[in-house]
Design a protein that fits this description.
Elements: H1 2-21, H2 30-51, H3 59-80
Helix pairs in contact: 1-2, 1-3, 2-3
């Protein structure tokens, strides 16, 4: 249960950082920001670990998580763009 709460908190923080870095206006609520951060962090964690770029728990993982969240935010923006 604690790891789930930690994942949600970290996902929210990573999502907020990604939204702050990404140019433009993103009208996402609390839940979408958290999901964006969680997905970005998971993609970066498993991707970096699978490629052997950095060990689990490394500070580089935070940077990779933010980059992953920015990529997910960019893809989300492309998919939800109106006309």
């Amino acid at each position: 249960m604690i790891s789930l709460i930690t994942t949600i908190i970290v996902g929210f923080i990573v999502g907020l950082i990604a939204r702050a870095i990404m140019p433009g206006r993103q009208s996402l609520g609390f839940i979408m920001t958290t999901l964006l951060g969680i997905v970005g962090a998971l993609v970066a964690s498993y991707g970096g670990g699978a490629l052997g770029l950095y060990p689990t728990g490394s500070p580089v993982g935070w940077i990779a998580s933010v980059i992953g969240a920015i990529v997910v935010l960019w893809i989300y923006g492309l998919l939800t763009r109106k006309g």
